[in-house]
Design goal:
alpha+beta, MutS, DNA mismatch repair protein, domain I, Dna Ligase, domain 1, 5-stranded mixed sheet, 13 helices, globular
Length: 506
C-alpha cells in the first residue's frame, strides 16, 4: 500500500531568511514579516511565529502591521529564492526516500512506500525528519497517510507536530478537517461556507453532482485525490549530479523474471558510469513508472561504497516482491542517490598477507532486510561512567581509536538502565551479603571490590561530588553480577546510598 509523507513548513520564508543571515540574523523573539505587492498595495506575505503571536497575518496591509506592532522588522519577500531553496531541500531529503518533490509554496511531499523500515519505522522516520530540520532552524510539521491529499491535509490541520494515519484509513480521518484542507480555491471555500458547509465531512455526506454543477469539477477532483480514487503522481526532484540510467520499454513489462533481467542490465550500465567517475554506490533507488501514471520505488543501501554488479543486482532483485507492476511498467530508472569515492584495490597475495574476511556483503543483506539502525556494533567512548563508555556505530565504520580499560573486568551484558535492588550490606566498604533483584532473593557467595567511579563534574554540576562503588558478586548458583552503591557509604552528598544492579557477567 502506498504511503505518502507531507512535510509542512509554516514559517518557511522567514526561517530561510534567518538561516541565510546566520549570526547576523535578528533574534527569534523579534517579530519579522516579509512584504510584497498586491496590485498597488504593500501587504504582508509571510509572518514568523512572533509576528503571528502579535496578531499579524498574511494579506494584512504593511502600514496596519507597523501600527499594531511597534519595532516590527520588515523585509522584502523573495518568492523565487524560496522556490529554489525548496527544491534544494527536496533534493537533500532524497536520503529518506527515492521519490521526493517540492509542494510549493511551503511543503515537501515524499513517497515513503517501502523506505520507512530503513529509518526505524514511520514514527521514527517522522521524528528524525522533524528533528533534523529543527537543528537547521526550520519549523516543520509532518503527517503520513495513504494519499498525497490526505497527508497534505493532516500535516497542516492535524499534526502536533506529527500525525500518522493508519494504513487503509479511508475518509474517517478527513471528516473533521476544514474545507481549506482539500486544496480548493478560496473563492470556492467561501461559496461552500455560504451554503452551510463547515468541514470535509459535510461535503462527503452530500451528492457530488449538484456541487459539481455549481462549483465545477475542482471539488470532485480534490476529494478523489484525498480518498485515493484518482491518482496524483509525484514528479520527483532530479538533481543534476545524480548518476542514473534509464530504460523505456516498447511493451510494458510485469513479470518478476523480466523485471530481474532488466535490473541486471541497468546495474551493468550504472556501474560503468560509477567507474568512470571513480565512485561507489552507498544507496540505490529503482523507480518503476507504470502505465497508470503511478510509480513504484525500491531502495537499497550499502554499508560501504560498492560498484560490484553481482552484489547490487542481488540486493535489488531481493526487493522485486515489493514491486506491484499493475497493468505494466513502461519505464525503469536506476540511480545512485548516494555515491562516494571508491578506488580500485589491488588483490593481496596470500604469500605476503592473509586478506581479512569481507563481511560487507552480509551486512548489506541484513541491513536491507531489517533496517540500517538494527545493524550496528559497539565502540568504546572515553568515559569512566559505564553507561557513557559505549556507543553504537555503523557496522562497517572505521575504528574510533579508543579502547576500553583493561584493569577492571566489565560485564558482557550491561543493562540499559541500572535497576534498583534490595541488599543487606555493611557500610561503608563491604559488599552485599545478599540482594533481591526482580523479586528473586540471592545470597552472595563471594565478591570483589569496591571499584570507585567518580562523576564527570565537567559535564554537570550535580556530579561534582557524586561517586559509585562497584562490586563483582557471585551467588550460590554461580551467577555473577555487577552491583554498585550510589555514594561512598558515609557522606550523603555523594549519593543516595541505594544499591543498583548494572550488569550481568556471562
Amino acid at each position: 500500500m502506498t504511503r505518502v509523507v507531507s512535510l509542512f513548513l509554516p514559517s518557511w520564508s522567514t526561517d530561510r531568511l534567518r538561516r541565510k543571515a546566520g549570526d547576523a540574523a535578528h533574534p527569534a523573539e523579534a517579530p519579522l514579516v516579509l512584504i510584497g505587492r498586491d496590485g498597488n498595495r504593500r501587504v504582508v506575505l509571510a509572518a514568523d511565529a512572533a509576528a503571528q503571536g502579535a496578531g499579524l497575518r498574511a494579506g494584512m496591509p504593511v502600514t496596519k502591521a507597523q501600527v499594531l506592532v511597534p519595532g516590527l522588522i520588515v523585509q522584502d519577500a523573495d518568492p523565487d529564492g524560496d522556490a529554489e531553496a525548496l527544491d534544494r531541500l527536496a533534493a537533500w531529503l532524497l536520503r529518506y526516500a527515492p521519490i521526493v518533490a517540492p509542494d510549493p509554496p511551503d511543503g515537501i511531499i515524499i513517497d515513503s512506500t517501502g523506505a520507512d523500515h530503513l529509518h526505524g519505522g514511520e514514527g521514527a522516520m517522522l521524528k528524525g525528519l522533524i528533528g533534523r530540520l529543527a537543528m537547521s532552524g526550520l519549523t516543520a510539521r509532518a503527517a503520513i497517510a495513504d494519499t498525497w491529499g490526505a497527508a497534505h491535509a493532516l500535516a497542516r490541520y492535524a499534526a502536533r507536530p506529527t500525525r500518522i494515519a493508519p494504513p487503509g484509513h479511508g475518509r474517517s480521518i478527513l471528516d473533521p478537517l476544514p474545507l481549506t484542507a482539500l486544496r480548493i480555491a478560496p473563492s470556492t471555500v467561501e461559496g461552500l461556507r455560504t451554503l452551510g458547509f463547515q468541514c470535509i465531512g459535510d461535503l462527503l455526506a452530500q451528492p457530488r453532482a449538484p456541487l459539481t454543477l455549481r462549483f465545477g469539477p475542482e471539488i470532485d477532483r480534490r476529494i478523489d485525490h484525498a480518498l485515493g480514487d484518482l491518482a496524483e503522481p509525484i514528479e520527483p526532484v532530479r538533481p543534476s549530479e545524480l548518476v542514473q540510467v534509464r530504460r523505456a520499454f516498447a511493451e510494458p513489462i510485469g513479470t518478476a523474471e523480466t523485471i530481474a533481467r532488466y535490473i541486471g542490465k541497468l546495474v551493468v550500465q550504472l556501474c560503468a558510469l560509477l567507474e568512470e567517475r571513480g565512485l561507489g554506490a552507498r544507496r540505490l533507488d529503482l523507480l518503476c513508472h507504470r502505465v497508470d501514471n503511478r510509480a513504484q520505488a525500491v531502495r537499497v543501501g550499502m554499508a560501504t561504497p560498492v560498484r560490484d554488479v553481482r552484489r547490487l543486482t542481488r540486493l535489488l532483485c531481493d526487493k522485486i516482491e515489493t514491486i506491484s507492476p499493475g497493468f505494466g511498467i513502461e519505464v525503469m530508472t536506476l540511480r545512485a542517490s548516494d555515491a562516494e569515492p571508491l578506488e580500485r584495490k589491488q588483490a593481496v597475495s596470500s604469500l605476503v598477507e592473509e586478506a581479512a574476511p569481507d563481511v560487507s556483503d552480509l551486512i548489506d543483506t541484513l541491513m536491507n532486510r531489517v533496517g540500517e539502525r538494527a545493524i550496528y556494533r559497539l565502540a568504546p567512548v572515553a568515559s569512566d561512567v559505564p553507561e557513557r563508555s559505549v556507543c553504537r556505530i555503523p557496522a562497517m565504520a572505521a575504528d574510533t581509536g579508543t579502547s576500553w580499560p583493561g584493569h577492571w573486568p566489565r560485564p558482557s551484558r550491561l543493562l540499559t538502565q541500572p535497576e534498583p535492588v534490595e541488599t543487606v550490606a555493611l557500610l561503608p566498604d563491604h559488599p552485599p551479603v545478599s540482594f533481591t533483584w526482580r523479586g528473586v532473593h540471592r545470597r552472595v557467595k563471594r565478591a570483589d571490590g569496591p571499584e570507585r567511579v567518580f562523576g564527570e563534574w565537567w559535564k554537570r554540576d550535580a556530579e561534582l561530588a557524586a561517586v559509585r562503588d562497584y562490586f563483582r558478586v557471585e551467588d550460590e548458583a554461580g551467577e555473577r553480577y555487577w552491583l554498585y552503591r550510589a555514594g561512598d557509604g558515609e557522606d550523603a552528598t555523594t549519593g543516595s546510598h541505594h544499591w543498583f544492579l548494572h550488569g550481568v557477567f556471562g
